[in-house]
Q: What sequence folds into this?
C-alpha cells in the first residue's frame, strides 16, 4: 500500500527547501514566496505561508488563486484533520487576499 503521509512529508520538505522552482542554467532556482526570507522564516506555520503566498501573488502582479476551501474543509473532517495544513494555508491566503481586494 502507498504511504501517502511519507509522500506528503517528502513533497513538503522539498518545497520548503526550494527544490520546486524554475530550471535555469542546469539547476532549479527557487523563487517561491519564501525565497527572500531567512531560515527562521521558513519555519513558520501554514496560515502564515498562505498569507505570504497571497502577498507574493499581489506584488508580482499575478491573479489571486481560487482554492476549493469548502471541499478541503470537508476532506479535513472526513480524514480526521489530515488536511489541516492545506486548510490553514487556504485560510491565511484568503484572509490576506481580502485585505488587498478591500483596499
A:
Amino acid at each position: 500500500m502507498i504511504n501517502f503521509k511519507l509522500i506528503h512529508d517528502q513533497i513538503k520538505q522539498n518545497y520548503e527547501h526550494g527544490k520546486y522552482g524554475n530550471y535555469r542554467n542546469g539547476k532549479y532556482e527557487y523563487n517561491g514566496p519564501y525565497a527572500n526570507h531567512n531560515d527562521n522564516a521558513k519555519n513558520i506555520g501554514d496560515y502564515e505561508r498562505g498569507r505570504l503566498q497571497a502577498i507574493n501573488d499581489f506584488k508580482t502582479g499575478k491573479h489571486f488563486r481560487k482554492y476549493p476551501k469548502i471541499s478541503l474543509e470537508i476532506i479535513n473532517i472526513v480524514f480526521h484533520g489530515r488536511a489541516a495544513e492545506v486548510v490553514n494555508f487556504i485560510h491565511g491566503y484568503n484572509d490576506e487576499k481580502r485585505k488587498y481586494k478591500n483596499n
